[in-house]
Amino acid sequence: MIANEAVVKTRSTNRDVLSLRYVVYALFFLIFYHTIVYLGHHAEMGSLVGMTLALYVLYGVFCVALAIRLAISTFQLRFRTALSTLLGCLVLSVLLPFGPLLQRVSFETIDATRFFLRESHYTRIVEQLPSDSGSKLIVFNWGGSFGGGVVYVLAYDESGEIALPADARSQSWKARASKQPYLSTVDDCKSDVRRIKSHFYLVSTIC
Predict the structure, then answer these.
(1) Do both 79 and 173 map to the same domain?
(2) Among 105, 80, 113, which residue's Cα sits nearest to residue 30?
(3) Which of 199, 196, 197, 200 is nearest to 108 (CA)?
(4) In 125-189, which ranges are E strands?
(5) Are residues 155 and 133 in the same domain?
(6) Which residues does residue 201 pair with via DSSP β-bridges, in sequence order?
(7) Does 105 share its domain with 122?
């Protein structure tokens, strides 16, 4: 009888452990969240409003699940488990105040990964371009957001003028750029240009 009670007590104690699994769960959720947002901005996946609401609902469900787990663990005096759950809640809570910063970092990380995985492919295409017509300029379509209001491209610009303000670009560059699909040279369009490596640039254009 005493032995059985000791076994039961040991099992109960073993269940109350300090673990990082809830932190890992929260980190995986944040990665999943920002990956879905990235895909939503770069592919026609449906309604942006609908996708955003679905993500917020999922976020809310995950928060409620952690909160319930925290309350149950505290009520059962399993303080190590409660602390583990609290750490997961704290990690997940950064999504709200630091949401824009996390999204920017996530987008840049995904962009860099996406580029480096296919860098040899893009480089090979650039090398095949004729070099007798001035500096090389080519654009690769990287998708667009909902409704076609935003276009994302990967551009190779040997001259580097793509990173200059619109009024500082030469007429010859504008003439060559106007022949490239998805690369807008219209004044009423706003473009954000970010150099990713060498003469490769990421360009997002809002018209």
Answers:
(1) no
(2) 105
(3) 196
(4) 137-144, 150-157
(5) yes
(6) 155, 195
(7) no
